[in-house]
Amino acid sequence: MSGLDRALAQFGRVEKTLFLLNSVGDEAFWQRILRQINRGEPWHGVGWAVFHKRKGELRQMLRTLIRGC
């Protein structure tokens, strides 16, 4: 990793830290974040239900397809 790479990585860490410090007390910001998280959770549950309902058959089918390539 070159000096420029390290400097850019460090700059990214500083930016992330400043963002978190500025947003820590912002209740409206965290409400928006939680709203976005809650929108995605049902899709995760659907995928989990489909996989477990089929008892892993979907995973086995994908493995078979991958081996055939």
Describe this structure in words.
- By secondary structure, the protein is mostly helical.
- The protein has one domain.
- It contains three helices and no strands.
- It is flat and about 45 Å long.
- The mean pLDDT is 82.
The poorly predicted ranges are: none
Mean pLDDT: 82
Proportion in β-strands: under 5%
Shape: flat
Helix fraction bin: over 70%
Radius of gyration: 21 Å
SSE series: HHH
Strand count = 0
Domain Tn3 transposase DDE: 4-61
Organism: Deinococcus marmoris
Protein name: Mobile element protein
Pfam family, one: DDE_Tnp_Tn3
Furnish the topology, listing elements before pairings.
Layout: H1 3-23, H2 27-53, H3 57-68
List the defining traits of the structure above:
69 residues; transposase activity; Mobile element protein; Tn3_Tnp_DDE_dom; mainly alpha; 3 helices; 0% strand
